[in-house]
Amino acid sequence: MRTPAQRALKAGAALALAAGGLFAASPLLTAETAAASPAAGQSPETAAEGQWLTGYWQNFDNGAPVMPLSEVPAEYNMIAVAFADNLDGTPGGITFNLASDELGGYTEEQFKADIAEVRSQGRKVVISVGGELGHVDVTNPEQAAGFAASAHDLMEEYGFDGVDIDLEHGINAQYMEEALRDLHQRAGGDLVVTMAPQTVDFQSPSAGYYQLAEAIPDILTIINMQYYNSGSMLGCDDQVYEQGTVDFVTAQACIQLELGLEPGQVGLGLPATPQAAGGGHQPPGNVVSALNCLEEGTDCGSFTPEQPYGPIGGAMTWSINWDASNGYEFAQTVGGRLGTG
């Protein structure tokens, strides 16, 4: 596949569709990160336990069914609690406020006990930071330290395994790396670090999420790109693809896979139902086809990778709650393909 720099020379008018397009390329593994990375062919320890089916658990009522964590199907072996709140008085700090009134009186005690039970089953629970409305600034050393310390406090209080970075209004890669490495030092090697960038965030090497992926492959568990609410984007073959198709997923996942991330660090994020997103929903069977295409070179659309990548990291959905409204079709179909649960 062409490098980002080669694609940038060719993209032309398609860059407008890609919301900014591609700039000069930079290698994913620098000398510094290569020295800190696991041995060749290995991913961080937390990503070496098999494929992930990540689902977001809603700490609010937006019309989708509400539920305690104890009711999350076993197929979801990574649960992202949505979302953290800003911690007043601490620059960069985060906290968590359980919306008991919106969740039928679900208590802090029950919530913490459910996290412990889920984790006892070998599943992971992370606190997600951001979302459409979330604004957490990590743009200087003070904010980076505040983020790391407060995130670790939440891990200690609730039993979270780590953090999910879902900031949709831009990130500063330098200081988010500083924060995550600080958190890793506090929490140890079992820390789970996930990210849910939007598609535009990997169209250019100058984008914050792209740069963050360059910087932390040694502590990154998985990136679950949001292949929805997107419009048209460039694939790794310089072609423009429309959301809502298998090609839209596979041709962009190829960008991350060709950049140097381990296949096990790349996941596919799709909405569980049409109501869960403004656009880009696909039947769960399409997610299975995308997995088959990337891993085995079968069930592809017009885009086919030059060679299969073998098992990738898994899949993600927004959200577990919307999936519940559809009889957990996403969990059953995609989880069945991944062998989770």
UniProtKB/TrEMBL annotation:
Report the GO molecular function annotations. Answer: chitin binding; endochitinase activity
Q: Which keywords accompany this UniProt record?
A: Glycosidase, Hydrolase, Signal
CDD domains with a match to the protein in the record: GH18_chitinase_D-like (cd02871)
Keyword Signal appears in the UniProt entry: yes
Say yes or no: keyword Hydrolase present. yes
Coiled-coil-forming residues are: none
The signal peptide stretch is: 1-24
Its Enzyme Commission number(s) read 3.2.1.14
Instruction: Tell me the GO BP annotations in alphabetical order.
Output: carbohydrate metabolic process
Family, per entry: Belongs to the glycosyl hydrolase 18 family.
Q: What is this protein called?
A: chitinase
